[in-house]
């Protein structure tokens, strides 16, 4: 098993700053989640129990920890691009930490997000990390195949409607200047196209020329064009999750209800349609997507 990152025990001490010598007062188990699918983080689960009744009310457990780091998976699938990936990681980490800090005291009815306990971006590199409540054993994500069921899709659309309504209601309190959609800038779109283009070489007999044929989809000015179109149409500005892949929604294993939306690394201002279209275009079962491609 890999060694525990040096920063993790330090973060634990900060979270339990009101408890004397937390590693003696509590039983604390730190487990590296080696099966984590994160490309951008090293992930841990922390289990905390109290040794006595005196500080039992101070226990926060279980905890999910993300330490921003280019993972071995990322390095393997994208070799030679360390500098570019580190720059992306810096932006993603900063955005998620800002979101949790800004909305720590805000309740989003119908749109559950994990409780937040700690966050530092790579501006403070030695202490960079994010800690939220952990849902291991309670909630789980699904894969793109089979995708969302009809019931799950309806739940998601209802949750997004409530999230959007809340952000419209508190619009005057949101520091919108922090949430420009600059993560999808021209360089990022260019990277997405080049990475997708690699599939032509992986399976030339089926994909040769097909990615190049849809290069127009990777429009480097798409954010600016969409913002202008939304403004012309009078669309309300709301917060978009901006990365609602199937892996970023946890479902309660017993009830089948949404347990939590996670990974707010791309959160940005945008239109109400963006997250909805992402769910419909990427999250539905394959046969549904095929049948409705032209709709």
TrEMBL record:
One Pfam family linked to the record: DUF1679
Residue ranges occupied by any CHK kinase-like domain in the UniProt entry: 130-295
InterPro entries: CHK_kinase-like, Dhs-27, Kinase-like_dom_sf, Oxido-Kinase-like_Enzymes
Origin superkingdom: Eukaryota
Name the UniProt record assigns to this protein: CHK kinase-like domain-containing protein
Organism whose genome encodes this protein: Caenorhabditis brenneri (Nematode worm)
